[in-house]
Amino acid sequence: MTVLPYKDKQDTKKKQVASMFDNISGHYDFLNHFLSLGIDILWRKKAIRLLKPDQPKLILDIATGTGDFAIEALALKPDKVIGVDISQGMLEVGKKKLKKKGLDHLIELQMGDSERLLFDDNKFDAIIVAFGVRNFEHLEQGLKDMHRVLKSGGKVVILEFSKPRTFPFKQVYQFYFKWILPKIGRLISKDNSAYTYLPESVNEFPDGENFLGILEKTGFKQTECKPLTLGISSIYTGIK
């Protein structure tokens, strides 16, 4: 089943996701940190540290949004980070943020479809994605294209929401995720669907071992899954 942000519209998932992020782009950063109590910042730091031994010089950040993960990747001292996203609204917020921080010479943000990346084969030393693969219209196609543009021996690091499985944390989390988070998100973002889509899309996403299987099917080797914060999110890694 394909989970869509706007169930009353006939547009493809890709168009709906782009439209949704355009709608919430002005509030996205605040809501991200507020709704996760700031834990999302620690998750990004932990994910980026997994690339430290690789010392990648050219990094691609898929579904970069407003550029938070790309900014975190600068801790690796790369020559350049390129971020791609399908939402013009998110990219505009990101570009303003980079300019304000004086980082626009190190990070380049551009419009791009994660399933049809406009880059040569074997171009990037590493590829990172934070909370983006869940929104792909065709998950396997997106992963295959990431594999294509990654250099041989390069690493992919994917941070994504997952489903806690231990009692009673699972029940408490699900209550918050299904009933509290959408209300706060709707109130602040003024988008009635975005923060209802979030828990629905997480629930449908093939997390854990299932996602590792898909990574391997699309060509990645030495895949690993590291659950974070009792399984609220997970970091997935793989090598080309």
CA-based gyration radius:
17 Å
Strands in their spatial order, largest beta sheet: 3-2-1-4-5-7-6
Largest sheet: 7 strands, mixed
Q: What structural category arises from helix and sheet content?
A: alpha/beta
Characterize the overall form.
Answer: globular
Helix-strand sequence: HHHEHEHEEHEHHHEE
Count of alpha/pi helices? 9
Instruction: Please indicate the percent range of residues in DSSP E strands (runs of 2 or more).
Output: 15-25%
Total count of strands: 7
How far the N terminus sits from the C terminus, by CA atoms, comes to: 29 Å
Overall mean confidence score, pLDDT: 95
Q: Give the helix proportion (percent range).
A: 40-55%
Oligomeric form: single chain
Low-pLDDT parts are none
Question: Helices and strands in order, then pairings?
Answer:
Layout: H1 13-24, H2 28-35, H3 39-49, E1 58-62, H4 68-73, E2 80-85, H5 88-101, E3 107-111, E4 124-130, H6 139-149, E5 150-161, H7 169-189, H8 194-204, H9 209-217, E6 221-228, E7 233-239
Parallel strand pairs: 1-2, 1-4, 2-3, 4-5
Antiparallel strand pairs: 5-7, 6-7
Helix pairs in contact: 7-8
Can you give a write-up of this model?
The protein has helices spanning 13-24, 28-35, 39-49, 68-73, 88-101, 139-149, 169-189, 194-204, 209-217; strands at residues 58-62, 80-85, 107-111, 124-130, 150-161, 221-228, 233-239. The two termini are 29 Å apart. It contains 9 helices and 7 strands; from the N terminus they run H-H-H-E-H-E-H-E-E-H-E-H-H-H-E-E. The chain has a 7-stranded mixed beta sheet, sandwiched between helices. The protein is globular and about 45 Å long. The model has no long low-confidence stretch (mean pLDDT 95). The chain is α/β, with parallel strands linked by helices. Helix 7 (169-189) packs antiparallel against helix 8. Strand 4, helix 6 (139-149) and strand 5 form a beta-alpha-beta unit. The protein is 43% helix and 21% strand.
